């Protein structure tokens, strides 16, 4: 078994089986494994193998994976697909180490926001504790230690001098990753923006757009916040729908999306639509 795969026994506990397969056997259940991000094919394949491993020990249960930041499917997309399959319950299992307390907070807030904006019937949602809390973590770490290979360090030599291209893109989008924005779901907004950047080829169409995470951008009470340059426009209370409009109207058409824009006035401002991020 490859070393990154969890031992099957981690998913074969009697307690989990009882939760997912009630005695009457009438409920349609799903397990959703979530990681933070993936930038290449290899981590996607790793998550698929993890998904297959869980599915092999949970007969009759749908098992899927998703990413909370960059990577497809995103958590929102995976949940939407499961809604279409009319499942009765979804068990969300975060495969994140280490897991900051803010991760669970924004996850619950994002789930609440998505549910409130989607008219389809929603199943029962349950979120597992962090993977480090498993009683089998010690055994897993010991298994990983057994796979360790000695590092062969070559003799030092001067690195080759390489050049860099100066980016031609004229637009920059900064997504705030400060404390308030993280609690309001900035990770999900960042992931959606990056996925849309890849899907729509934003780097090479229009003026060209580059994206980056930022430390605090300032207006914390307007979280989650992003800023678009060269205009320097602030957007607050940003949702996935807001990101879509900012891409279509601002990045590609040059028009500020006033529904989510906040301009410097010299006075404190509050969110105009706080229900969007509650």
Multimer state? single chain
Task: Report low-confidence residues grouped into runs of 5 or more.
Answer: 1-15
H/E element sequence = HEHEHEHEHEHHEEEHE
CATH architecture of the largest domain: 3-Layer(aba) Sandwich
The first-to-last residue Cα distance is: 43 Å
Q: What is the 3D form?
A: globular
Strand order of the largest sheet: 6-5-7-8-9
- Give me the CATH fold name of the largest domain: Rossmann fold
CATH class of the largest domain: Alpha Beta
Number of helices: 8
Task: Describe this structure in a few short sentences.
The protein is of the alpha/beta class. The chain is built from 8 helices and 9 strands. The strands form 2 sheets. It has a 5-stranded mixed sheet with strand order 6-5-7-8-9, covered by helices on one side.
Please, could you describe this protein's structure?
The protein is α/β, with parallel strands linked by helices and 278 residues long. It is 33% helix and 16% strand. It folds into two domains: 8-142, 3-Layer(aba) Sandwich (Rossmann fold), CATH 3.40.50; 171-277, Glutaredoxin, CATH 3.40.30. It is globular, with a radius of gyration of 22 Å.
Any descriptors?
278 residues; alpha/beta; Rossmann fold; Glutaredoxin; 2 domains; 4-stranded parallel sheet; 8 helices; globular; disordered N terminus
Topology overview:
Blueprint: H1 14-20, E1 29-35, H2 41-57, E2 62-67, H3 75-84, E3 89-94, H4 101-116, E4 124-127, H5 137-145, E5 171-176, H6 179-183, H7 186-200, E6 209-214, E7 226-229, E8 233-235, H8 240-251, E9 261-262
Parallel strand pairs: 1-2, 1-3, 3-4, 5-6
Antiparallel strand pairs: 5-7, 7-8, 8-9
